[in-house]
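Handout, section 3.2

Students often ask what a structure token actually looks like in practice. Rather than define it abstractly, here is a full record for Glucose-6-phosphate/phosphate and phosphoenolpyruvate/phosphate antiporter. The first block is the sequence as you would receive it.
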Amino acid sequence: MSLASKDDRKVAVDVAAWMFNIVTSVGIIMVNKALMATYGFTFATTLTGLHFAATTLMTLILKWLGYIQSSSLPASDLMKFVLFANFSIVGMNVSLMWNSVGFYQIAKLSMIPVSCFLEVVLDRVQYSRDTKLSILVVLLGVGICTVTDVSVNAKGFIAAFIAVWSTSLQQYFVHFLQRKHSIGSFDLLGHTAPPQAVSLLLVGPFMDYWLTDKRIDTYHYTYTSVMFVVLSCAIAIGTNLSQFICIGRFTAVSFQVLGHMKTILVLMLGFLFFGKEGLNLHVVVGMMVAIVGMIWYGHASSQPGGKERRPSPTNNKPEEQVELVKLDEQDETV
């Protein structure tokens, strides 16, 4: 296979992975919004546990069909990942409950610089000036679109801090564990989904009761609300899988930056289906600025020197340096 055809195939797969993630992520947001706002199913943590239970079932089917190969993941790495992932889910739910929408959006935006910090410190990644500027443009555009009222209190700030760092670490670990243990997205999801499902289904009902003063066992289930829960779980399978595929092929920072396209799409769909009273000039301008920044980031980070690992310290053995170069050449990151 020629180099050009390999590059074309990589681009096609990359685009397909992003589109898969965008469609499933936007879809699940819209379904969950209808489920919670229209049918009063406000048990977000338990619902996430059901999402991972459905994902676990999917991984078992894929393993039976031969798409997931037997692989090992050290218990220590698995526990770290599940801990970060669960703190991320609970932290984001609590942050949304305790903070204003404006501060919640600021917290979500701050995941980009935190993810950059983790890559610089842990992976020795170096960004070009254009890549840094494009990230700032994305932050500015999304901030203009989404940040309105900003109010915060001590417990809300602590919840947001935990949510931001745990989410950034969870997304960093998706890419790190795939690279470290040479396992694919399906394999990693097969390891992580079952313990996440069990832990969230055990903790979820209590966490949801603490946040909403409502018990999931007293909820009035109807045929339509149950169908929405089933639909949410079905879409979540694609969302979880596409997240692992995208971060595995790219990095957590790229996933965060380009992932804000989902925020723009959710805003557009919200205006389309739920009314246009929030659509004004500064929101439209913010969308345009954010889209320009995302396009710029995709171009800048793909250029030579746009985003690359720095050489390891000179005290490494020559064999280790050669191995690092080989790893860098094999990594398909944006």
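Discussion prompt for tutorial groups: The longest helix spans residues 3-39. How would you have guessed this from the sequence alone?
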